[in-house]
Amino acid sequence: xxxxxxxxxxxxxxxxxxxxxxxxxxxxxxxxxxxxxxxxxxxxxxxxxxxxxxxxxxxxxxxxxxxxxxxxxxxxxxxxxxxxxxxxxxxxxxxxxxxxxxxxxxxxxxxxxxxxxxxxxxxxxxxxxxxxxxxxxxxxxxxxxxxxxxxxxxxxxxxxxxxxxxxxxxxxxxxxxxxxxxxxxxxxxxxx
Length: 192
Known about the structure:
The protein is an alpha+beta fold and about 190 residues long. Helices cover about 50% and strands about 20% of the residues. The protein has a domain at about 1-115: Jelly Rolls (Sandwich). The chain has a 4-stranded antiparallel beta sheet. Strands 2-7-4-5 form a 4-stranded antiparallel beta sheet. Strand 4 (about 55-60) and strand 5 form a beta hairpin. Helix 8 crosses helix 9 (about 180-190). The longest helix is centred in the C-terminal third of the chain and has 27 residues, at about 120-145. It is globular, with a radius of gyration of 18 Å.
């Protein structure tokens, strides 16, 4: 459960008594590489803490190609945005797929929301979690638009130095918006 609490602490430092409110509600959950944790358009009732392993979030674009938009590793939190926000939508069509065998701890979103409602410490955590996630998403979108593919790749490996060992070339290429051949050339150029 080490990565659960590192994920929680990343957003807001909860008191020990507040952390105890979630411990009994966390369920261990495992899936194998290639399985889908959350299907597109699915209202999945859980918030998942990645204890071990890696996932990718992707959608299918107009051409039917898979577009990777996020990678999650140990200490990351993943969930269905439409379930978390309690909205019916067909524009949030992301799936979360395992790129390694994973061990998760999951908790019902409804339980997390009851903590937000009844405990100030948890309400502060929830606010901080959403604010941080929003800021990081906007920052990444803006920076990725302004930088070259090479700069985006260098930034990705700087922030996630183990990504080349754990994620397939085609998925990194998709995330960067280039073909695997282009990324392979870029890697060769950088290694020189």
